[in-house]
Structure to design on (626 residues):
C-alpha cells in the first residue's frame, strides 16, 4: 500500500463518523426546511423573513453576539497581555481562573447568575444602594443578563486564543518599540495589537459562533420574552411542534453565521498572509 | 564633552546583586565596548543605559542630563538587539521609519528622505518594500542597523549585534560598523563577549567581570598590559605561570616550580612570588638542545589551524598553549625548547584579592 492510500485508510473512520454524526443531520435539516405538504416549498423561509417578530429575533441574535464578542475582546486582550507577562507560576493560576467557568455545568453556572441578577440578588441590591436603580429593579430577563452570562462563559475562548499568540511574540519587540520612542500605550497600539490580531480574530470567530448558537444561558437568563434564535428554534420543536419551521430557522442561523464569518476570516487572513 | 556618564551603578535582581558599583564615562563620538564573559552583567548595564532596566543605586546621565528615572522613550538613544527585533508586520522601509514616526522627527517627506539615506548606508535600498522575514539574517541585521542610526541618536547601543551571523558576514559587518562610525561619529556602546570584535572595533574597551569593571583602556593598551589574571586570560589567550622572581632590573629572572629559570626584561619586576602572563603567540618553539634562556618542555598535542598550529606543551607540571607558524613542526611527545621574548612577559601579582 502506498503512503497515500494508507493515509486515506487511517482517516476513513473519522470521516465516516463526521459524515454520519454531522453531515447527515444537517442534510436532513436542510431537506426538512424546504418540505411542505405538497413537496418542495420555501414557505417556511418566507414566513420567517416577512414576520417582524422573527426578524427581530434574528437581529437580536446578531446584535448580542457582536456585543458579547466585543466585550470578550475588550476584557480578554488586557487579561491575556498580563498573563503573557507574568511568571509561569502566576500564569498557571490565571489560566485556571479563566477556564474555571468551563469546569462548572452550564446550568449550575446560569442559576448562579439568576441568583445574583434577580430582584433581591446581589447586583441589583448594590445598584439600588448606590441609588442607580429603582425599587423593583431586576436584571433578570434582560439582554444585559444574557450578555453578562455569555461573556463569563466565552471569555476563556478569547483569552486563550490571544494568549497563544502573545506568548510567541519576541519580548524584545516591545522593548525595541520603547527605545524607538513609543510610550507603553503606544507600544500596545502600534506593535502588540497588530501582531495579536490573528489571535483576536480566532477568538472572535469562536466567541461569535458560540454565542450566536447558544441556548441554555439565553433561555434561562433571557426568559421567554427575550428570544434568541436558538431558543426560538427550541420553542418551535418542543411547543408548537412545527419542525419544518424550526429547520428553516436553523438553516437561517447556519447560513447567517457563515455569511458573517467567512468574509471576516478572509479579511484578516489577507492582511496577515 | 561627556555623552554617557554612569555613576556607581548597582543593580540587584531579588536578593542577588549583579552589578557592584560601576562607573564609566564615555566621550562624545567614542566607540566603547563592554567586554566580558556571559553573565558578567554587561547586557544589564546596556539595558540600564537604554532605560529598559532600572538601577538599584547610582545614576545615569546622557548628554549632561540625568535620565536615571526617565523611561526609554524619553531618552535620546537607539538600541540594536541581538535578535534584531524587527517589527514583522511592517515593511523594511516602515521599520526604518518607525523611530522617526514615533518620535515625531521631521515631515513625511523628510522622513522618507532619511529612510532612503539610511537604507543606502546599509546597501539595502532595493529591499525597502520587503517584509523582514523575507530577508536573510545578514540583511535583517543591516535593517536593524539602519533603524538604529536613522534618528541620529545621541547614543547608539549595540547588544551583541554580530553574534548571530556566520564568520564571513561578521567580518564584513565589522568593517561596515567601523566605516559607519567614522562617517557618522555616533557615540556608541557595544556589548560583546568576543574579544577580537572588541579589539578590532573599539576606541576603548571596558572589561567587565562578575559585575565589576576589571580594567579599561584602549585595545592596544589593554591587550599589551593586562592588569589582572582575568584580563590577561580573557583578552588574547595568555598562559598564567606561577614563578618566584629573583634579582633586580636587568638581572631579574623568574624561577619556575621545577627549578628552570626564565630571564625577564625586568623594569617592573619585584623579588618575590609572582604570576607570569605569557601570550600564546609570544612563545617560539625550538628543537630540543641547549639554548640560552629557553625552557625545556614537551609537546603534548598539536592542532593544525592552516597558517599556524596550536600546541599544548607541558612545562614542569603546567600546560601551556602556544600558537606557532607551520615552518617547523613538532609532533606530540617531542621534546622542545620554549623561547619567550622577555619584553613581552607580563608580571602580575601572585594572588588577587
Amino acid at each position: 500500500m502506498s503512503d497515500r492510500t494508507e493515509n486515506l485508510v487511517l482517516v476513513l473512520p473519522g470521516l465516516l463518523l463526521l459524515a454520519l454524526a454531522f453531515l447527515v443531520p444537517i442534510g436532513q435539516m436542510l431537506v426538512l426546511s424546504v418540505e411542505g405538504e405538497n413537496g418542495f416549498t420555501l414557505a417556511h423561509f418566507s414566513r420567517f423573513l416577512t414576520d417582524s417578530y422573527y426578524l427581530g429575533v434574528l437581529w437580536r441574535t446578531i446584535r448580542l453576539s457582536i456585543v458579547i464578542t466585543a466585550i470578550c475582546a475588550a476584557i480578554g486582550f488586557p487579561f491575556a497581555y498580563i498573563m503573557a507577562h507574568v511568571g509561569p507560576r502566576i500564569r498557571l493560576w490565571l489560566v485556571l481562573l479563566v477556564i474555571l467557568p468551563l469546569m462548572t455545568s452550564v446550568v449550575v453556572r446560569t442559576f448562579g447568575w439568576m441568583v445574583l441578577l434577580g430582584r433581591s440578588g446581589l447586583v441589583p441590591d448594590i445598584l439600588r444602594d448606590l441609588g442607580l436603580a429603582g425599587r423593583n429593579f431586576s436584571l433578570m430577563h434582560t439582554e444585559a443578563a444574557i450578555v453578562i452570562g455569555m461573556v463569563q462563559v466565552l471569555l476563556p475562548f478569547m483569552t486563550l486564543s490571544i494568549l497563544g499568540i502573545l506568548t510567541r511574540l519576541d519580548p524584545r519587540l516591545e522593548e525595541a518599540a520603547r527605545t524607538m520612542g513609543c510610550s507603553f500605550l503606544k507600544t500596545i497600539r502600534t506593535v502588540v495589537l497588530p501582531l495579536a490580531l490573528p489571535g483576536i480574530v480566532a477568538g472572535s470567530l469562536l466567541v461569535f459562533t458560540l454565542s450566536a448558537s447558544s441556548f441554555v444561558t439565553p433561555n434561562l437568563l433571557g426568559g421567554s420574552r427575550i428570544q434568541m434564535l436558538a431558543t426560538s428554534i427550541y420553542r418551535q420543536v418542543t411547543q408548537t411542534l412545527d419542525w419544518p419551521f424550526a429547520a428553516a430557522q436553523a438553516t437561517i442561523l447556519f447560513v447567517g453565521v457563515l455569511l458573517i464569518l467567512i468574509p471576516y476570516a478572509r479579511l484578516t487572513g489577507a492582511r496577515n498572509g | 564633552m561627556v555623552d554617557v556618564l554612569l555613576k556607581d551603578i548597582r543593580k540587584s535582581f531579588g536578593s542577588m546583586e549583579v552589578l557592584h558599583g560601576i562607573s564609566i564615562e564615555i566621550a562624545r563620538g567614542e566607540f566603547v565596548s563592554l567586554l566580558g564573559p556571559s553573565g558578567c552583567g554587561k547586557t544589564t548595564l546596556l539595558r540600564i543605559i537604554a532605560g529598559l532596566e532600572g538601577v538599584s543605586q547610582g545614576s545615569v546621565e546622557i548628554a549632561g542630563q540625568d535620565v536615571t528615572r526617565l523611561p526609554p522613550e524619553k531618552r535620546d538613544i537607539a538600541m540594536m538587539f541581538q535578535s534584531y527585533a524587527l517589527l514583522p508586520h511592517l515593511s523594511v522601509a516602515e521599520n526604518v521609519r518607525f523611530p522617526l514616526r514615533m518620535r515625531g522627527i521631521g515631515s513625511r517627506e523628510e522622513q522618507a528622505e532619511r529612510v532612503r539615506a539610511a537604507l543606502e548606508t546599509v546597501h539595502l535600498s532595493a529591499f525597502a518594500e520587503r517584509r523582514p522575514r523575507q530577508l536573510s539574517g545578514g540583511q535583517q541585521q543591516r535593517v536593524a542597523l539602519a533603524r538604529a542610526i536613522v534618528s541620529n541618536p545621541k547614543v547608539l547601543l549595540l547588544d551583541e549585534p554580530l553574534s548571530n551571523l556566520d564568520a564571513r558576514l561578521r567580518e564584513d559587518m565589522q568593517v561596515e560598523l567601523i566605516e559607519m562610525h567614522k562617517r557618522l561619529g555616533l557615540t556608541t556602546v557595544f556589548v560583546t563577549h568576543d574579544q577580537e570584535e572588541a579589539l578590532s572595533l573599539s576606541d576603548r574597551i571596558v572589561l567587565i567581570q562578575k559585575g565589576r569593571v576589571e580594567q579599561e583602556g584602549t585595545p592596544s593598551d589593554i591587550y599589551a598590559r593586562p592588569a589582572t589574571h582575568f584580563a590577561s586570560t580573557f583578552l588574547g589567550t595568555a598562559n598564567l605561570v606561577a614563578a618566584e622572581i629573583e634579582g633586580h632590573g636587568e638581572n631579574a629572572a623568574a624561577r619556575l616550580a621545577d627549578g628552570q629559570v626564565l630571564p625577564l626584561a625586568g623594569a617592573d619586576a619585584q623579588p618575590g612570588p609572582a604570576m607570569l602572563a605569557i601570550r600564546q603567540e609570544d612563545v617560539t618553539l625550538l628543537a630540543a638542545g641547549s639554548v640560552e634562556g629557553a625552557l625545556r618542555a614537551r609537546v603534548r598535542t598539536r592542532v593544525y589551524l592552516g597558517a599556524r598550529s596550536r600546541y599544548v606543551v607541558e612545562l614542569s607540571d603546567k600546560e601551556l598553549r602556544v600558537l606557532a607558524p607551520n615552518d617547523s613542526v613538532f609532533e606530540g611527545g617531542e621534546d622542545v625548547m620554549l623561547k619567550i621574548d622577555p619584553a613581552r612577559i607580563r608580571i602580575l601579582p601572585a594572588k588577587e584579592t
Summary: The interface with chain B takes residues 170, 172-173, 175-184, 186, 190-191, 194-195, 272 of chain A (CB under 8 Å). Chain A has twelve helices and two strands.
